[in-house]
User: Fold this.
Amino acid sequence: MNLATRQPWLMLSMLVVPLLTLASPAWLRIAGISPAWAPLWLLPWALVDGQLSGSVAGFCLGLLLDSLHPGPVSTIPALLLLGWWWGRLGYQGPPIERSFNLALLAMIGTLGLNLSLMAQWAWRSWLGLRGLQGASAARLALPGWHGSDLALAGVQVLLSQLLLAALLAPVFCSLLLLLFRRLQTASGRG
Amino acid sequence: MPASRWLRPGATRSLFQVWPLLIALGLLTLVRLSKGAFLLDAYAQLSRPFWPGTAQAEWLRSARRSEDQVRLAQLETENQRLRGLLQLQTLSPTRLSAPVISRVPAGWWQHLLLGKGSLDGVKVGQAVLAPGGLIGLVSSVTPMTATVTLLTDPSSRVGVWVLRNRHQALLSGLGTSRPVVRFLEKDPQVQPGDVVFTSPASTLVPANLPVGVLQSVDERADPAPEAVVQLIAPVDAVDWVQVLVPR
Assistant:
């Protein structure tokens, strides 16, 4: 938790995630789908600063991202758990630095984030449809992602973001990891 | 430092060190509760130098003239029949041009961010048009920005009708680039190529705004026939849109 306590201003760097989400250029998209930037920032932060700091950062990041979306589902649970898990990994065993490992962890994080959103949509759909008996116009009017949408467009979103995470993580996460480690070492000396 | 050690009672020094984090957490909660007002307005200010130029605004006006001519003919016939029903909207809304400063056409949330907000008179629920027709509805506003939920978003539901035979339907986003129209009648008698307009029965949007063209019809769908719609407005390319602001 060195970075979060000794250099709390560094957490402001998480503002880059919602800004990148909003400004994501067309050439960084696959089939119109933008990368999931949150795991790409959270992974190096949690690896360097530990599980408590990772969880707090994941929660804060979830608050920021949820504020951009009008939808009823939340990114907070997945990001909080990912921050905790990656922080734990950072303090166990040898340091994780290789591009392949970072890409793999970023992909798992992106998978977890997407699956959590899919599960929340599926749960809300089930709750909504359960209250409506039979085939009625109200079923058609029920907004949100439902089973068939999740199975088609939802899976497409998931696969696209997995691919983008694998492509971006070796560059984005490596640079952030290097930056955070240097700042941590500097703050440790100070 | 492991978490268990950090959380140990008596570690007052660590707690003292963490107070900026608590303040930041409070601020972020405020950001969340305000639906990102600070964040979106900051983004609008930061990206202002890169907003689209006025060239497409001219093109938009030209396209609007062409669109008006097409709509005029059908509106004249419709006005005679619906005059009684349309008493609720005796004044036609004005069109407020707004630049698109962020675009998310695909993914879990499909929306546009416009560079005009409540200070310019934009409110939640207003219809948003691009050259060709309706693209979505305003779902949230900040003082300087407005978020538009696209018709392709699965949370979007808009009442439409096929003008040729006046059959009512519900336009539903599926998360793909082409929404689907679900008819309320068992035998809607529609065919590919029919044009879909917003329904006069809808209370969400003004009547008879062009929406899209039927691409394929599935008459055996359950519980009602449905058809895939190609939207007329090019959501991926448009840089300027028009918000229908009531007078």
About this structure: Chain A has eight helices and no strands.
